[in-house]
Amino acid sequence: MTLDLAFFAAAIPAVLISAASKGGFGGGAAFASAPLMALAMPPAQAVGLLLPLLMLMDVLSLRPHWRRWDWRHSALLMLGGVAGTAIGWAIFGAIRPDGVQLMVGLSALGFVGLQVARSFGRLRPPDHDPGPAKGLALGSVTGLTSFISHAGGPASMYLLGAGLDRTTYQASMVLVFWWLNLIKLPAYVELGMLNRELVVPLLILAPIAVAGVYLGVWAHRRVSDVFFFRLTWSLLAVTGAKLVWDSLT
After folding, report:
1. Among 110, 113, 155, 112, residue whose Cα is nearest residue 134
2. How many CB atoms are located within 10 Å of the residue 64 CB?
3. Distance between CA atoms of 47 and 211, rounded to whole angstroms?
4. Integer Cα distance of 80 and 40 in angstroms
5. Number of structural domains the chain divides into
6. pLDDT tens per residue across span 26-74
7. Mean pLDDT, the chain, as a whole number?
8. pLDDT one-digit tens code per residue, 97-136
9. Is 3 helix (H, G, I), strand (E, B) or coil?
10. Torsion from C-alpha of 80, 86, 88, 93, nearest 10 degrees
């Protein structure tokens, strides 16, 4: 891996966005980090590099949100996520690098489309408790999307439909993705997405991840969710489109 200007121009904003999202905005924008970093390195390597950083963010985010989560809904997502992670492991082991790039790009554009549909009222969380079956199903989908590019849209929709307050929703997202990132670790190592080549960039980016989490905690009650997510979605749309274009050409 070449630690040049292009790498840091992509990696530093990616880590800051992801960390701030985990620290104060429910973790939804953390998905933008993988497509952004994939502009400067192979997508599988970008996804692998982010995992230890995300795990560090998870540990830091758990403390200020400790036991504020909704355990019943979180547990359903966590259980379903095991199956989704296994599916992602099988898929990643069977496709070529350009296929990984296409999947990350399409996931990014799909996520943006989902958020736009929600913004215009075309897609709404249910107005009643989603129930255990839907929790397990959406947990499985979340496990898959999380494995591919650290995306968590399905989990977000499920928890929003559960009628949680902002802090409980944030704490539940932190707990769910702490678990999903933990169970992804053996698969990433086996697939070669995590290796010794990543040690130096991880050491460089770790302090940025720590600072970003505390920035997010501070901004939780001070920065508008609408502003933060619209900025992230715009960035995600551009990076997703470029990844799809590059993979096809």
Report:
1. 155
2. 18
3. 21
4. 33
5. 1
6. 555 667 778 888 888 888 888 899 899 888 888 887 877 788 888 889 9
7. 81
8. 777 778 887 877 777 777 777 666 666 655 566 678 888 9
9. coil
10. 180
Neighbours of 123 (CB within 10 A): 13
Start-to-end CA span in the chain (Å)? 23
Looking at this protein, which amino acid is placed at residue 8? Answer: F
Token pair 């990350």 is found at: 104
Token representation of residue 229: 């997510």
Residue numbers of the domain that contains 107: 5-248
pTM: 0.78
Number of other residues whose CB lies within 10 A of the CB of residue 153 = 20
Q: Report residue 111 as tokens.
A: 């996520």
Q: Which residues contact 10 (CB under 8 A, 6 or more apart)?
A: 36, 37, 39, 40, 41
Among 15, 234, 30, 225, CA closest to 112: 234
The tokens for 231 are: 């900025």
CB atoms within 10 A of CB 58: 21
Instruction: Give the burial string for 214-240 (b: 16+ CB within 10 Å, else e).
Output: bbbbebbeeeeeeebbeebbebbbebb
